Amino acid sequence: MSRPSTRVSRLPEKQSTSRSRLDELLDATPLATIALVRDGHPVIFPVGFARIDDELVIHGSTGSPWMRQLAGGAAAAVSITALDGVLVARSGFESSFQFRSAVLFGTFEVVPEADKVRYLETLTDTFIPGRVAELRPSNRKELAATLALRMPIATDNWSLKIGDGWPEDEDEDIAAGAWAGVVPLTTVYGEPQRAPDCDAQTPVPPSVTAMSGELSNRRGRRPR
Fold this sequence. Notes:
- The radius of gyration is 21 Å and the shape is globular.
- It is an alpha+beta fold.
- Helices cover 21% and strands 33% of the residues.
- 15% of the residues are buried.
- It has six helices and ten strands, in the order E-H-E-E-E-H-E-E-E-H-H-E-E-H-E-H.
């Protein structure tokens, strides 16, 4: 089977080969989409993920057909995108987005049982920093029902494209005097909402107040 190309063919000047910029993107968002072929046709799924050192790690139910297929070594493509701004040009043709987008190609493998708890706890603390210390340990039933998978982030299995410039309008459009620029896009945490069955006297834990009440260092997001 031939290896997928990691070369950007459309606007190749936007391709970045910086591993640090790739890690920055992977650490900036918890959501990826994974594409594979099932039953003879392409399918795609959204999934939470985290970068743990040089691996892209996901988890899901052992009852999931597509997770089991990935665990079995199916070839996959993983896409991660962050929108950083709306590019407001002087024409619809030139209007676009500021963005960072990466695709990783490869196969997943099952995280060994000896490492499973560590990986799952790292995932939890990546999504909600400090939460593991506030929780009871996962029990045997929960661990048995969960698949943890990892894909290596190598030197040649990813492609990164970054659009971070200004509108590139034609001279006649610039001369016409219409406004052009960028409207930044940011992700913020909102106010925590207590579950209906959560006692009103139960204090909001530090992991949650850190997300919603102060600047978050994790993933570069800003809470309200």
